Here is the input.
Amino acid sequence: ESGRITAEVRRRPEHVGLPADSEFFIETYVPVKRLKDGSTVGVVEIYKAPVALTAATERGHRQVWAAAGIGALILYVTLFWIVHRADRTIHRQQERLVDAETMAAAGELTSSMAHNIRNPLASIRSSAELWIDLEGEGRGEQARDIIRGVDRIEAWIRELLRFTRAEPQTSGEVDIGSIVVSEFEERARDFQQRGIAGTASVLTGQSRVLGDAVVYAQVLHSVISNAIDATPAGGRITGTVERASQDRVRISIADTGQGIPTDLIDTVFKPFFTTKKEGLGLGLALAKRTVERIGGNIRIQSAEGTGTTVVLELPSV
Here is the structure.
């Protein structure tokens, strides 16, 4: 017989000799038999208190529970990581699917619009150019307004075509520092008209990156245009080129404009999202696609009321 030693058990006379730190007892009954006929004439009771065995058993219980708890925690963390990773993967795939559907719709729209609008636009522009030569007060300025409107629509069509065509990018070597400086010099008139100070500086001796000069010029033109639209008179736009790491060159275009609200930061790269009345919302989306195709990345740092910085990191030579 065995059992746990309780206060009631300790009060029994036969249990008085058990150790004070013992929790369990083992009671063995040994019968005393008569040799002549084998009949039982008595019983010897032997009491044992297995202190070491009890302690080892308790340690085993604790170890089993600890192992079970640690195993459950590891299993939970592993399953959580798997589910979280699967959720992110599904979310990214869903975003790509939406972008693909948007691209397909934009491609069909652009092809149709380019075919049906470009010829009438060319006729309107030619007529406006002829109208400039005609005599009459105010006709020249009105014709120039028409030409500017036609050119704006033509620029939108070109931007749509560039966005919807997945053209392969060349992987030559270009000096991105000179391209940034050149873009700022070409926009000097726009800076002057808006009352904005625009400066560009190259802080690294080696600014050659992989890619195509024309593509980079388009990307920078779009980013600088956004900065000009967001910066009020008296503000400043700066462009810097520096070494981000051994194999990366960083280009930063910073303005002192109104900034981007926090809840819109994640949506500025989505196609057709814009806060401008006359914008298509393709500038940053096109820039992101172009830079990522080349193997770089683009991100935005902005605080509402203090300005915005667009950072491009490109693979260096």
